[in-house]
């Protein structure tokens, strides 16, 4: 029967992303997905192929939306350190927002929970981390060109220092809610560049 | 925290864990019919490899060699068993860090080991396996407040140990006189948590080592490998 799709695929994937992000892969049941997307199990499976496929689509959606937002902040006007700070603060504040449920970074959660067991998930999250590293490297390079960041050091190495601090903050912010303490770590790391 | 050295020292480990465990056993009034150390380490490895939710009761029975009655009779339910294993893991790590702080020739040595630790296994296997606490934090911090509380306890204790090490490093001339040991300790922990997380994402070991060295060069330029 040629029934029109009664749902908007975009909206469904976004709802699934929010559910996986909050509960993790194993912690999300088919029932959770049905509840959050408003679809029945058969539409869900017929359209997307199953939980794992939907999870991969959710990771892709994260890359296209949340990661893209982080990258946009890195490419916004301002000095290199201002841009690095804006990107870190943006993530920190969303991590600390109680309404969001302190859910951390979805790509990182996926990497920790699933990537070691599933090569497609690993590929997907590696793309996210590699892209963020490249963007950080470009910002550090720009800062070195203007003299804001010491030019004598390897831009890639400095970018990895920023990246380690950034992801470490996102791990810590799930259990440490003192924004002042987290913020001072951002500032002391940037000051040292 | 990925503070154990090689995979072997993790798996068979902890000479130290064993001594902790033994003193614990002596305090217990009734003897167990099985080797509690052995069971807890086997269970820990299973949770570590698979994650909490993906580990089934059948998995736990298989690796422990026990029946459900004995396993849950001794440790409570799956969650209680998991929290027990996680706490033991953290205690062992903290004990090891504290012991290294006492035995290190210089305070900076401990900080160097801590930062380079996530990249210390050249095969990359340890980095990919990650840290049981960090893995648990990513999986369970929202749904299980006890895990978030355990992570907080552990991170606070590590910060205190690193602060002590950095105070020593400052006295010994390895940290700038105007650097704040507590602030540097927090920033070092944060960067190390990031390194552990990146290691888990499957980054190659050379890249991870370079990242760890960049962190060290920033926090302890006086002793960073060049």
The name of the CATH architecture of the domain at 63-191 in chain A is: Orthogonal Bundle
Which secondary-structure class do the elements of chain B indicate? mainly alpha
Low-confidence stretches of chain B: 1-27
Q: Give the DSSP E fraction of chain B (strand runs of 2 or more residues).
A: under 5%
Q: From the 3D coordinates, which CATH architecture of chain B would you assign?
A: Orthogonal Bundle
Protein name (chain A): TetR family transcriptional regulator
Organism (chain A): Streptomyces typhae
DNA-binding region (chain A): 29-48
GO molecular function (chain A): DNA binding
Structural description of this entry:
The complex is a heterodimer of chains A (193) and B (226). Chain A is an all-alpha fold and 193 residues long. Chain A has a domain at 63-191: Tetracycline Repressor, domain 2. Helix content of chain A is 73%, strand content 0%. Chain A starts with 8 loop residues before the first helix and ends with a helix. Chain B has 226 residues and is mainly alpha-helical. Chain B has a single domain (7-219), classed as Tetracycline Repressor, domain 2. Chain B is 71% helix and 0% strand. Chain B contains 12 helices and no strands. Chain B is elongated and about 60 Å long. The interface between A and B is large, with 47 and 48 residues. Chain A: Pfam families: TetR_C_13, TetR_N. Chain A: Keywords: DNA-binding, Transcription, Transcription regulation. Chain A: InterPro entries: Homeodomain-like_sf, HTH_TetR, Tet_transcr_reg_TetR-rel_C_sf, TetR_C. Chain A: Residues 6-66 form the HTH tetR-type domain.
Please outline what is shown here.
The complex is a heterodimer of chains A (193) and B (226). With 193 residues, chain A is mainly alpha-helical. Chain A has helices at 9-23, 30-37, 41-48, 51-74, 80-96, 106-115, 119-146, 155-172, 179-191.
């Amino acid at each position: 029967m040629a029934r029109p799709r009664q749902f908007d695929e975009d909206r469904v994937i976004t709802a699934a992303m929010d559910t996986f992000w909050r509960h993790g892969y194993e912690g999300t049941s088919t029932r959770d997905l049905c509840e959050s997307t408003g679809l029945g199990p058969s539409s869900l499976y017929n359209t997307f192929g199953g939980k794992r496929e939907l999870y991969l689509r959710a990771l892709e959606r994260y890359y296209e939306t949340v990661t893209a937002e982080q990258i946009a902040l890195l490419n916004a006007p301002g000095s290199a350190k201002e841009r690095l700070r804006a990107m870190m603060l943006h993530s920190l504040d969303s991590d600390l927002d109680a309404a969001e449920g302190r859910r951390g970074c979805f790509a990182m959660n996926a990497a920790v929970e699933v990537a070691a067991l599933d090569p497609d998930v690993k590929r997907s999250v590696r793309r996210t981390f590699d892209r963020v590293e490249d963007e950080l490297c470009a910002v550090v390079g720009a800062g070195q060109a203007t003299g804001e960041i010491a030019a004598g050091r390897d831009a890639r190495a400095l970018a990895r220092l920023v990246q380690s601090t950034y992801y470490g903050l996102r791990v810590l912010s799930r259990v440490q809610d003192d924004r002042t303490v987290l913020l001072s770590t951002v500032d002391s790391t940037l000051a040292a560049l | 925290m990925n503070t154990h050295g090689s995979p072997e020292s993790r798996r068979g480990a902890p000479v130290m864990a064993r001594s902790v465990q033994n003193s614990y056993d002596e305090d217990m009034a009734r003897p167990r019919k099985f080797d509690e150390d052995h069971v807890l380490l086997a269970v820990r490895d299973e949770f570590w490899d698979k994650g909490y939710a993906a580990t089934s009761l059948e998995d736990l029975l298989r690796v422990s060699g026990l029946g459900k009655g004995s396993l849950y009779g001794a440790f409570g339910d799956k969650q209680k068993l998991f929290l027990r294993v996680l706490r033991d893991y953290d205690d062992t790590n903290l004990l090891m860090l504290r012991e290294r702080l006492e035995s290190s020739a210089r305070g900076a040595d401990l900080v160097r080991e801590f930062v380079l630790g996530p990249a210390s296994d050249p095969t990359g296997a340890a980095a990919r396996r990650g840290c049981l606490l960090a893995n648990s934090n990513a999986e369970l911090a929202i749904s299980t407040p006890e895990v978030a509380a355990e992570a907080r306890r552990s991170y606070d204790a590590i910060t205190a140990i690193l602060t002590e090490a950095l105070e020593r490093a400052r006295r010994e001339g390895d940290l700038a006189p105007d650097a704040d040991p507590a602030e540097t300790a927090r920033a070092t922990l944060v960067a190390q948590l990031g390194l552990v997380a990146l290691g888990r994402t499957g980054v190659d070991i050379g890249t991870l080592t370079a990242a760890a060295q960049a962190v060290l060069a920033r926090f302890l330029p006086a002793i960073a490998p060049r």
